[in-house]
Amino acid sequence: MSTAIRTTRDVIDAYYRYVNAGDWQSWLGLYNETMQMDEQLAGHVVGAAVLRGAVGGLEKGYSKFQMHPMKTVIDGEHAAVIWHCEAANHAGVPIDAIGASRTSTSEMKKPLSGRKIGILIESDYYEPEIHYYQHRFAEEGAEVHFLSRLWGQPKLTFLGHEARMPFEVTESFETITDEQLAEYAAIIVPSGMVSDRLRYTEDVTKLPPATEFLQRAFANPDVIKGIICHGMWLVAPTPELVRGRKVVVHNNLHGDAVNMGASYVNEDVVVDGDLVTARTGAHCHLLARQIIDMLTARTPAGVA
Fold first, then answer.
1. 116-298: which CATH topology?
2. Fold classification of 8-107 (topology level)
3. pLDDT above 70 (res 304)
4. pLDDT in tens, 192-226
5. What is the pTM of this model?
6. Would you list the domain boundaries of the chain?
């Protein structure tokens, strides 16, 4: 499905669209496993397993099943619908009923449920950007993983650039295999000094570990790569990754991008296939929005 389901109204519209199309798998895909719903015909429903069992009965027991919303009341994540059901049982005997349902979109699967977003991080990170990613992707249901080079330690605490806010990281990109990397929907190189710190290598004849990780991400077109602001510094040792590709970078890195062979585009956000770039850390909301939209468009109807 190319239309993103984000608002409570979107969920209600999709609910009845799937029901009336007989697309029960997409309908089931709207719910998480711990959902709860009050429905006049089914009563108080707890757990998606109950709904999966009900679908078999609907498919076998009815020759016609149409639900028409007559009145919808929405309050934030909650909604109540008065509906008119026009149906016929397996023998063709007509059924006509009016009833009501109450549900909450917090019980529904979110667009990025089950998807993993990896964000590289180091000291001098830009706090507003990192904290925005931390909450914005999670809001869409994604698992957000902050990855760094831990230098053999179980965890490291990095300080932000603006307010020196501490940020503890326990995951290292150095231990991620290609198979594990393929589980990520997107890898993001953030703004500021993060990429400069991560592009350090003890041996100048070898790629920095962070650049090698990014190189592996570029080798997989199913993984969206997001690079913002000064994040393009991390690509410098491997300019072939962006050679001939459309990008935008911080104004200070315009010459760097051109020297890498990239095609600079003077826009706040630029998309070139599986590569999304943004101008500055202040444009992190635009980068995130673009990545969310792309991942949602990749998700089949009702599948997260």
1. Rossmann fold (3.40.50)
2. Nuclear Transport Factor 2; Chain: A, (3.10.450)
3. no
4. 999 999 999 999 999 999 999 999 999 999 999 99
5. 0.71
6. 8-107, 116-298
Residues 131-169: pLDDT tens digits? 999 999 998 889 999 999 999 999 999 999 989 999 999
Q: Model confidence over 73-91: pLDDT tens digits? A: 998 878 889 999 999 988 8
The strands making up 78-89's β-sheet, listed across from edge to edge, are: 43-46, 36-39, 94-104, 78-89, 62-75
**pLDDT tens column, 24-55:** 888 887 877 666 666 655 667 766 777 777 78
Are the CB atoms for 129 and 191 separated by under 8 Å? yes
Average pLDDT over residues 296-301: 70
CB-CB contact of 289 with 226 (8 Å): no
- Rounded Cα distance between 84 and 67, Å, is 6
